[in-house]
TrEMBL record:
<dbReference type="InterPro" id="IPR043129">
    <property type="entry name" value="ATPase_NBD"/>
</dbReference>
<dbReference type="GO" id="GO:0042732">
    <property type="term" value="P:D-xylose metabolic process"/>
</dbReference>
<comment type="function">
    <text>Transcriptional repressor of xylose-utilizing enzymes.</text>
</comment>
<comment type="similarity">
    <text>Belongs to the ROK (NagC/XylR) family.</text>
</comment>
<dbReference type="InterPro" id="IPR000600">
    <property type="entry name" value="ROK"/>
</dbReference>
<dbReference type="InterPro" id="IPR036390">
    <property type="entry name" value="WH_DNA-bd_sf"/>
</dbReference>
<keyword id="KW-0119">Carbohydrate metabolism</keyword>
<dbReference type="InterPro" id="IPR049874">
    <property type="entry name" value="ROK_cs"/>
</dbReference>
<dbReference type="Pfam" id="PF13412">
    <property type="entry name" value="HTH_24"/>
</dbReference>
<dbReference type="InterPro" id="IPR036388">
    <property type="entry name" value="WH-like_DNA-bd_sf"/>
</dbReference>
<keyword id="KW-0859">Xylose metabolism</keyword>
<dbReference type="Pfam" id="PF00480">
    <property type="entry name" value="ROK"/>
</dbReference>
<protein>
    <recommendedName>
        <fullName>ROK family transcriptional regulator</fullName>
    </recommendedName>
</protein>
Amino acid sequence: MTVISSKRGENSRNQYNTNRVLILKMILNHPDITRRELSQQTGLTQAAITKIMKDLIDQQVVFESKVVKGSVGAPSIGLRVDVENYQVIGVKLSRYDYSIGWYRLDHQLMDQRTYPFDSNLSAHERLEEISLRLNRLIDEIPQIIYIGFAVPGPYNLQEGKIELMTEVGGFEKVFLRDYFENTLSKPVVISHDANAAALACKENYLNQAENETLAFYYLDQGVGCGVIDRGSFVLGNLGTAAEIGHTTINFTGPPCPCGNVGCLETYCSTVSFLKRAKEKAKTTPTVLKDLPQVSMSAIFDHYETDDVCREVVDETVEALCVGATVIISAYNPSLLVLGGEMLKGHKFIQPRLEAMIKERIIPSIANSTRVVYTQPQDDYVLKGAASVAIEASLNYSNELFNRK
């Protein structure tokens, strides 16, 4: 799947829709851009720009915003996309909850909500709940034109299903894409959660740069990685490439539901982090025994004074850092972004990761990699779900906007 189109247009008649998408994206990214500037930046003729703009304005997708005074010649008219009347929904599916946010086409969040799952619900019942809630929301917000999902992996892009969701069974039997296409009243697009987050990060950190490689290292209820290389996702044969969570880091480690042993996810997901702390608390004196509920924050807060907390944090951070060095060695990203709930332990992660990169990565490669640590509240997976919906809505804009 191409993430960013070339900035050069084509004047062939057969390329009308490609050029239309290119122009829409440029207007979105550069509000008040003029027709002359569009022609200069895309290489399209003035006649091609005029024809496409007439269609977009007639469909009320784009409007003329204001007079823009140029340095030479007569003033020009600026252009904007009508982001108020065209919106998308982003859905983040997790093991124990799901989040829904709706966004304008310029990525501005309008509102978002998170809903916990009843642990007794089957996979199919959970999807039914999401579908019912989304259809109600679509009825309430007529501006919605597309829905994007970010789901845990490995996500089989060809078949449209999750091959494995650790801790929650049954999803591997459901063809998600078919299910939502049949139950929702708007078109849908589904992406692996880390891929979706990578797209959102690219828009935020790389400012649409085309020649960069970005890796998003997702450390949450599961562990995953999404990579964008020179404008395109690194997907592999079935779309499951960069599934770092099921990479072995300990040949004699615990078995994983994927069939492997010693998987990274069994050491540094939030689920395994809490599970190991509770297991150690059964046999070792610890402050955790006195707490009504063992939380990540409690474990980090008692690091200095509690042996169990310190041991669990050290094990987790060590594994997490090993995973990061694997990503750097395998994909050579110019930007590595860490995100997810495990970043609550940022103060423990950053110094150790920087030291491990310096120690274990070839200096020229290490020096060419910038590392960014996001805040847990910066939900790039949900933003990414909206980003893939926006991308899809623009790519199919002619059909969508005519239908609306």
